[in-house]
Amino acid sequence: MTPGGAPTSGPGTSATDVRDPGDRAVAPAAGSVAVGDELPPLTVAVTRDRLVRYAGASGDFNPIHWNDRVASAVGLPGVIAHGMLTMALAGRLVTDWVGGPGGVVELGVTFTRPVVVPNDDAGATVELTGVVGAVDEQAGTARIDVTARFQGQTVLGKARATVRLG
């Protein structure tokens, strides 16, 4: 883990990266993927620092993502992560597995509960898992069903991605 809370490569932080000799990411081959196959899990610490960086990148400076007083005033239990940041983590799980963002045909989620981010160095731990839910060998695609959990509760519903297989 970096000082800012960004995950580093290693156990529990990043999916296995398949590389070809030119060091380019390679999508799994259509014939090698089956329904029920699990993606390597991804665990990410979402810190206040990460929220500030995401706000800068996205332009979403809503104070519920950085100000405890405002978050409490609108009925939230504390500062919450941007929903789109949580969705991006689901996208990262999938892109790590499929070999890069070019392999993702579609990604959709429903936001079911917020990720509350404490004002400490540890942040909020989001755990993501994925499983192959369907394979269309004729189209060369697979559906990935993603689960994102925070404090044991699902934070993304109907999280699914369609990916192009190699």
From TrEMBL:
MF terms in GO: fatty acid synthase activity
GO cellular component: fatty acid synthase complex
GO BP annotations, alphabetical order: fatty acid biosynthetic process
Organism: Nakamurella endophytica
UniProt xrefs under Pfam families: MaoC_dehydratas (PF01575)
Biased composition regions of type Low complexity, renumbered to the chain: 1-16
Protein name: MaoC family dehydratase
Family according to the record: Belongs to the enoyl-CoA hydratase/isomerase family.
